[in-house]
Structures
1.
Amino acid sequence: MPSNPLESLKALGDQLRAQIGEELDIDALRRQDPPRPLDELLTELDALPGLESVKEQVRALVAFLRVQARRKEAGLPEVATTQHLVFLGNPGTGKTTVARLLAQMYRSMGLLRRGHLVEVDRAGLVGQYVGLTAVKTDRVVRKALDGVLFVDEAYALSRDAERLDFGDEAIETLLKRMEDNRHRLVVIVAGYPRLMRRFLESNPGLRSRFSREIEFPDYSTDDLVEIFRRFAAEAEYTVGEGAEDALRTIFHNAERDESFGNARFARTLFEQSLNAQALRLGEGDVESLAHDELMRLTPADLVAGARSLGEEPAPPRGGWFTRRR
């Protein structure tokens, strides 16, 4: 037992932190930056590639919440509505990015004190034996209080008829905590449209808790080209002459089923293209490479990157224009 009182207090604090994990992070609360202005967050939303229908729905939601808050200030009755949301969309369509912005918008409007985002999936909520699921779900909810809990691939919580597990317990626990903490917690459930609609029908309480759905469409070819360019610009790479045509061909010919990764596919293509560029440049004298050569991605780099992902892009008629340097 520590003899110094300060050491005793520190030991007690360490013990409490060990008991509750990271659900209550006092240090994080103390160092939290002030809320960002709502207009700044909406501008950041507008700057995202594509997602025009999503941006429209988010703006409508924000406007509704602001008007209801003003009605309350004016002594008028509020329209009772849930703030919990369903995000429907294939992987890589910006669901987590928009959820993070929404969390900050809720904080900016005074609806949430912290406005942080806690992302979790089935593994973070469901235990492997009786009693553990409620404990895990409670722990995650406590960590998300005063912010947004984002449940990705939420449909995996609903029980498969041929499998006995504790997903239903996680749903029931989550629904109760959502009601108990309705002024301190916003829950967003997300996943494939077809599977999420089945999930919402799997429990009578789910549909009433999530009255608003936002559908995230797949990115267009133009959107994916812009996303790739942003990845390149952030890492200080450039798309050389003829490379944009190669990009468009790769994205246009990619199979667009439920497994298509959208922005994730663009990021993976970028990473594989860097590998191809490195192999190409490594065949010569690396030490003598000029600055622009180190930055430039060629059509051949992009095609090699696509082939490493199982794609076989056919060149446009006349081929991709490149110039030896």
Note: The radius of gyration is 24 Å.
2.
Amino acid sequence: MIPRLFERYNEELRPALAEKLGRANRLSLPRLEKIVVNMGVGRATGDKKLLEEATDALRLISGQKPIVTLARKSVAGFRLREGQAIGCKVTLRGRRMYEFLDRLISLALPRVRDFRGLNPKGFDGRGNYNMGLTEQLVFPELNPDKYVHTQGMNITIVTSANQDNEGRELLAGFGMPFQTDEQ
């Protein structure tokens, strides 16, 4: 089964981007490359159960097994040792990437408390967008009774666009709710 956003990209968004950007070559148009979801669990230095809970939650949200990330160097002030497990991340590509983005836009973001739109300044200068969620329970896959510790996550959407305005056009075409100037 073809993901809904992938069909929308091929049928509606790609021709609209070609006209707006003035390009005939469809391979030069911006497209999604990958989505990286990262959960840093700093409290995991004291309690390993928190890292296991975060890994399980990320597995349910993304649909694939996360990689446990390790500390690169020791920091005595944080009681952190090199090689200690401090987080988890997952890289989504292809079908899973489009399905995750669809669930993020249509289900998770509307469930965020006091949501007024995404910050349009989250672009990195090369067309990629970074955003953060303060709690993972906005995803309906997670049972709030099982996950008692609220855990945030960083989401990076990597595009093939070379400029922020092209990446913004691509994500706005998918339906990303960016803040407007009036707010």
Note: The CA atoms of residues 34 and 93 lie 5 Å apart.
